[in-house]
Design brief:
Elements: E1 2-6, H1 11-26, E2 30-36, H2 40-45, E3 49-53, H3 56-63, H4 71-96, E4 101-105, H5 110-119, E5 123-127, E6 141-142, E7 145-146, H6 153-182, H7 191-195, E8 202-204, E9 221-223, H8 238-245, E10 251-254, H9 263-276, E11 280-283, E12 298-301, H10 306-309, E13 315-318, H11 322-331, E14 335-337, H12 344-354, E15 357-359, H13 367-378, H14 381-391, H15 398-410
Parallel strand pairs: 1-2, 1-4, 2-3, 4-5, 5-8, 8-9, 10-11, 10-13, 11-12, 13-14, 14-15
Antiparallel strand pairs: 6-7
Helix pairs in contact: 1-15, 4-5, 4-6, 9-13
Amino acid sequence: MRFLINPIGSYGDVYPFIAIGRQLAERGHDVHLVASGYFGDAIERAGLACTPIGDPEDYERMVGDADLSNPRRALKLIATAISETLPITYQILDQRTTDDTVLVGSTLSFATRIVNEVRGNPWIPIHLAPSIFRSNIAPPRFLEQGLPPWLPRAFADATWWIGDRMVIDPLWATGVNEFRSSLGLEPISRIFRDWIHSPGLTIGLFPDWFGPRQTDWPNGVQLTGFPLYDQPEPGLPPEVEAFLDAGDPPVVFVSGTATASEARFYAESVWGCTRAGVRGLLLTRFPQQLPDDLPDGVTHFPSIPFSQLLPRCRAIVHHGGVGTLSQALRAGIPQIVRPYGFDQFDNADRLVRLGVGREIPNGKYRAVRVARVLETLSEDPTLQQTCRDVADRFTEDAVSTTCSLLESRANGI
């Protein structure tokens, strides 16, 4: 069987699809990824074939745009990028699609959906976070506020409709419809309500205990769990081991891999470490975000596999990406989330409700508050125990379950 996979996003968005692709290949299937050229090396290191979309520099230019740290401007930036790359992505997918091809795409993989419409091949969307599924029963949280659950259904429906008509469709559907018109396809509207979900099978790559399935979600949704893939190496690098062994477990600070404009986050984090009297480990692939001088007990590394690092750490402070939070949940350590866009607000809410961490709003992320919250976490035995209890829930192989579902759908079961 042939699987053509198109992940779009950051490392946290691409890694799950590398994990899925690897296992499908191990099961004897022909697997090919179509992704940003920035991730070509990571995909090939996993033993998978990849056709790049653009050069690594294209991705670096985008993540260097300061607008990515602004939730409203970031949506326009990303929507524009998706529209601009849609024709070439479609062309690559179309050329590689044969009669036995199964199309697998992430949330923003509009091209796989369109190839499915044109050619009729099976298409399975995979969504990484619960917030992509609209609900009036348990509304996801967007920006600083979400829809209150007590809002009457008619008002909630009207809110969704206004949001689609006034904000979402002008941003996202306009470019998609221009390309659809060139293929002779009808225009679409309310793009994130139904069109990105498949009634045959839509996979949510998170567990039910994190994002419980709601009765008003689309038909065909199956939840498989967190994929937990981070390309671990055989042991940590010596310089990482040396830092971990040199003192108390550190606090990890990371702001994701999809932005290079987070200098304030790292500066406040360093000062917060100093005020709290804890050691800090800063992770970023873009060192221009870091202060010029780091105090004793605070260091920087570009990237370390979370599966090996986090079990040896005191806590983690991060942006709320689902890949980061799931690794921290498995490690059983407290989390502080400073969301700034996309699914991060909703993810932060879920972590707080689970009782495993705290949220600091982006505009209030200051060293004094960081230090105070870190001290609170370390002095809260209930939260510490809850973190350990949640870690014990990681008993299933989400990647294996996902691959079995993909095979079943491809075989028409």
